[in-house]
């Protein structure tokens, strides 16, 4: 019964995003370590009972073969985009005070639709996050001139003083375990080590890849910029840029501005991290997930812990 519940938890979570999963996905995201055979046997039982639906290699709570077709297309498209994302990560690593770059979002899960952006998770040196972020976003403004702004979506920043993610739930654990290291092994490895709490949700987190394929040597421009701002001037500039950004985003929130996906725009701006407000999207996902779990428990008698 516990294995059944663990399998359903994986499928229920990804079903929120209309994302059917294969056996290899289920094994990766299980909250317990178990051999492949009993997992396959339990999945087959769930299919026979009508709890799950199978299309090819994929399983879902929805009887919709189009979801499997969409995922196959999304995987092929993601594989086409990944070399572009890896090249972009190496470029972003050359900005002053950047210590690590990971690919995040739908691309890191190898499922990108035709409107998918290239999302990055950025790690900076301590107390220089806002200098790095500002320089990177100034560059992004230039990419609009060539229609390539979707290639540089730097959504989440942490610095070396705040590597541990505070919200410890299935949403953040899923995002962390699927991050793709792309550049800056020192910062990336330290980040993954600081977040080993994730193994409470996903034991496979301990065994995931923690090293980038290739990390370029820091450029002369990067080294010079860091040397010039490794002082009190850099401290004051970082604080100023944080306050400036926070003021601009507070005005967006007051106006109720929406992004291109129709979600309310909100950003948390602290000294050591910059991230979307978890109350906006993350909490919605967690609430929907809990409702789905409750439905499965009532319908199929599964016991979830």
Which residue ranges are poorly predicted, with pLDDT under 50 across at least 5 consecutive positions? none
Mean pLDDT: 92
Which structural class do the helices and strands define? alpha+beta
Biggest sheet statistics: 6 strands, mixed
Radius of gyration: 21 Å
For the record, the count of structural domains works out to 2
Strand content: 5-15%
Total strands: the figure is 8
Instruction: Give the terminus-to-terminus CA distance.
Output: 12 Å
Helix content range: 40-55%
Spatial strand order of the main sheet: 6-3-4-5-8-7
Q: Helices and strands, in N-to-C order?
A: HHHEEHEHEHEHEHHHEEH
- Coarse morphology: elongated
Total helical elements? 11
Tell me what you see in this structure.
This protein is of the alpha+beta class and 305 residues long. The chain folds into 2 domains: 2-63 and 285-300, Winged helix-like DNA-binding domain superfamily/Winged helix DNA-binding domain (Arc Repressor Mutant, subunit A), CATH 1.10.10; 72-283, no CATH class. The chain has 11 helices and 8 strands. The strands form 2 sheets. It has a 6-stranded mixed sheet with strand order 6-3-4-5-8-7. The N and C termini lie close together (12 Å). The model has no long low-confidence stretch (mean pLDDT 92).
């Amino acid at each position: 019964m516990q294995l059944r519940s663990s399998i359903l938890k994986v499928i229920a979570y990804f079903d929120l995003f209309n994302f059917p999963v294969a056996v290899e996905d289920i094994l990766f995201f299980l909250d317990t370590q178990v051999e492949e055979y009993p997992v396959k046997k339990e999945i087959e039982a769930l299919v026979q009972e009508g709890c799950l639906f199978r299309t090819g290699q994929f399983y879902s709570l929805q009887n919709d073969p189009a979801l499997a077709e969409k995922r196959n297309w999304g995987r092929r498209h993601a594989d086409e985009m990944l070399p572009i994302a890896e090249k972009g990560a190496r470029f972003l690593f050359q900005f002053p005070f950047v210590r690590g770059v990971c690919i995040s979002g739908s691309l890191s899960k190898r499922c990108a639709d035709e409107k998918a952006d290239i999302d990055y998770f950025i790690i900076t040196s301590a107390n220089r996050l806002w200098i790095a972020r500002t320089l990177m976003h100034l560059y992004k403004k230039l990419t609009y001139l060539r229609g390539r702004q979707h290639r540089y979506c730097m959504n989440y920043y942490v610095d070396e003083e705040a590597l541990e993610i505070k919200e410890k739930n299935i949403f953040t654990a899923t995002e962390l375990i699927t991050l793709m290291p792309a550049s800056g092994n020192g910062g990336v490895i330290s980040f993954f080590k600081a977040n080993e709490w994730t193994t409470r949700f996903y034991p496979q987190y301990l065994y995931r890849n923690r090293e980038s394929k290739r990390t370029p040597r820091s450029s002369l421009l990067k080294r010079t910029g860091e040397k010039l701002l490794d002082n009190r001037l850099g401290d004051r500039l970082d604080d100023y840029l944080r306050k400036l950004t926070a003021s601009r985003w507070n005005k967006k929130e007051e106006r109720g501005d929406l992004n291109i996906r129709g979600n309310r725009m909100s950003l948390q701006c602290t000294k050591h991290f910059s991230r979307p407000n978890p109350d906006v999207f993350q909490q919605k996902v967690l609430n929907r997930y809990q409702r789905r779990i409750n439905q499965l428990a009532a319908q199929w008698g599964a016991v979830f812990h």
